[in-house]
Task: inverse folding
C-alpha cells in the first residue's frame, strides 16, 4: 500500500500572501500607559490578536537591597514600591518583623494604624477615580479627585510629616503619638470628603459616554482571576468575594466587622471595576470614622514598644500579608538571626494583576485597550519593585 502525499501550491496572489498582522509597541513612554510599562501588541487591523505586558523598565532591585539594610532601614525601601499606598507598604513589613519577634503592639497603635491604612486607601482610590475618566477624555473629575485628596493629605502630613512617603510605621508601633486636636481635624476631613463623593456618581457614572466606553468592555472572568492570582478591587469586581480584612483579620479589622463592607460586582467589566473602587471609598471613610470613635474612648498610653539599640530577628521564616488598596501584598521574611533580613520577598498586587492582560486583551479593539488598561488600577513601581 502506497502512501499518498498531498502538496498545496499557492500561485499568483502577489502581496496578499503576506500576513496582515502588525506588531505595535505601546510604551514604555506612551501617555496611554501608566508610566514605564510596555505592551507588545500583535494587531489584525484595529483588533488585538496577542498582547504581552513587558515589565522591568523601572526595576530598582528593592528585594536585594533589603538584604543590606537593617530592620529599621528596610521600611524606607518598602514604602516606595506602590507610591500611592506608602502607609500600607510600610505596614506589611513591620507586621512581618513583629510576627518574627512575637511582639505585641500597644492597642492605641493598632487602632491608629488601622485608621491611617484606611485613609491611605481612600487617597489611592481617589487618584484612580480621577485619572481613569481622564484617560477616556473626561478632564473634570481629576480636579475633584485632587481636591478631596488634599483634604486627607493635609491630615496625613500633619501626623507623619510626609505627603507621599509617610515613614510613620515602626517595628513595635508608630513613630509618634497623634498631635493634639488631630482627631477632630481628621474627622472634619473625612466628613468633607464624604459630602462631595456624590460628584463622581453624577459626573462620571451618570455620563453616558463614560458608560458607553466601559460597560461590557474588558470582562475579566472569575476563572482568570483565580488562574492569575488577581486580587483586590479587580477580583471583587468579577464576583470573587475575598477580602483579607474580613477573611483573615489583622490590625483592628476583627473588631470592625459591623462596619466593614466587602464591595463586589458580578459584571467584571471596566464599569464594574470603577464602581467597586467608588463604593470602597465610601466604606473606608466609614471605617475611618469608626477608628476615630474608638481612639477617642481609649485611655492615654504608649504607641510603640521600646526596642534594643540593635534589632535582630530570631532565626526562622514567616509570611505576612495585607489587603493593600490595589490587592494582596505578601511579605516572606527569612532571618538568620542577624540585624538584616536574609531574604525578604515581596508579593505585590500589581504584578499579578497586570499578567491577566495577556488573556484579556486579545479580541478587543485598540481603542478599548486604553479603557481596559486604565481600569486595571496598577502602579508600575509595584510591578517592578
Result:
Amino acid at each position: 500500500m502506497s502512501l499518498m502525499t498531498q502538496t498545496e501550491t499557492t500561485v499568483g496572489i502577489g502581496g496578499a500572501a503576506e500576513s496582515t498582522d502588525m506588531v505595535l509597541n505601546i510604551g514604555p513612554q506612551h501617555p496611554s500607559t501608566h508610566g514605564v510599562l510596555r505592551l507588545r501588541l500583535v494587531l489584525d487591523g484595529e483588533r488585538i490578536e496577542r498582547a504581552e505586558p513587558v515589565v522591568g523598565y523601572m526595576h530598582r532591585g528593592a528585594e536585594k537591597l533589603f538584604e543590606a539594610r537593617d530592620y529599621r532601614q528596610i521600611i524606607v525601601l518598602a514604602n516606595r514600591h506602590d507610591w500611592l499606598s506608602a502607609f500600607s507598604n510600610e505596614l506589611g513589613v513591620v507586621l512581618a518583623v513583629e510576627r518574627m519577634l512575637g511582639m505585641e503592639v500597644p492597642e492605641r497603635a493598632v487602632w491608629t494604624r488601622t485608621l491611617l491604612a484606611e485613609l491611605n486607601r481612600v487617597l489611592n482610590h481617589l487618584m484612580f477615580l480621577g485619572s481613569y475618566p481622564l484617560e477616556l477624555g473626561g478632564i473634570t473629575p481629576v480636579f475633584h479627585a485632587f481636591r478631596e485628596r488634599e483634604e486627607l493629605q493635609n491630615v496625613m502630613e500633619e501626623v507623619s510629616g510626609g505627603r507621599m512617603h509617610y515613614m510613620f510605621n515602626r517595628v513595635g508601633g508608630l513613630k509618634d503619638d497623634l498631635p493634639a486636636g488631630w482627631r477632630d481635624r481628621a474627622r472634619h476631613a473625612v466628613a468633607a470628603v464624604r459630602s462631595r463623593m456624590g460628584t463622581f456618581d453624577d459626573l462620571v457614572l451618570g455620563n453616558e459616554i463614560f458608560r458607553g466606553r466601559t460597560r461590557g468592555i474588558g470582562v475579566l472572568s472569575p476563572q482568570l482571576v483565580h488562574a492569575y492570582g488577581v486580587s483586590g478591587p479587580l477580583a471583587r469586581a468579577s464576583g470573587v468575594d475575598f477580602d483579607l480584612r474580613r477573611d483573615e483579620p489583622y490590625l483592628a479589622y476583627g473588631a470592625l466587622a459591623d462596619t466593614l463592607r466587602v464591595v463586589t460586582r458580578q459584571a467584571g467589566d471596566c464599569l464594574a471595576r470603577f464602581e467597586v473602587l467608588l463604593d470602597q471609598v465610601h466604606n473606608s471613610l466609614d471605617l475611618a470614622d469608626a477608628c476615630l470613635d474608638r481612639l477617642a474612648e481609649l485611655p492615654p498610653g504608649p504607641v510603640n514598644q521600646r526596642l534594643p539599640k540593635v534589632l535582630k530577628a530570631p532565626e526562622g521564616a514567616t509570611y505576612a500579608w495585607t489587603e493593600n488598596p490595589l490587592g494582596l501584598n505578601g511579605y516572606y521574611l527569612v532571618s538568620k538571626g542577624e540585624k538584616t533580613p536574609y531574604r525578604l520577598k515581596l508579593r505585590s498586587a500589581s504584578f499579578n494583576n497586570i499578567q491577566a492582560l495577556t488573556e484579556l486583551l486579545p479580541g478587543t479593539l485598540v481603542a478599548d485597550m486604553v479603557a481596559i488598561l486604565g481600569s486595571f488600577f496598577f502602579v508600575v513601581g509595584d510591578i517592578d519593585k
Q: What stands out?
A: DSSP finds 16 helices and eight strands in the chain. The first helix runs from residue 62 to 66. The chain has a mean pLDDT of 90.
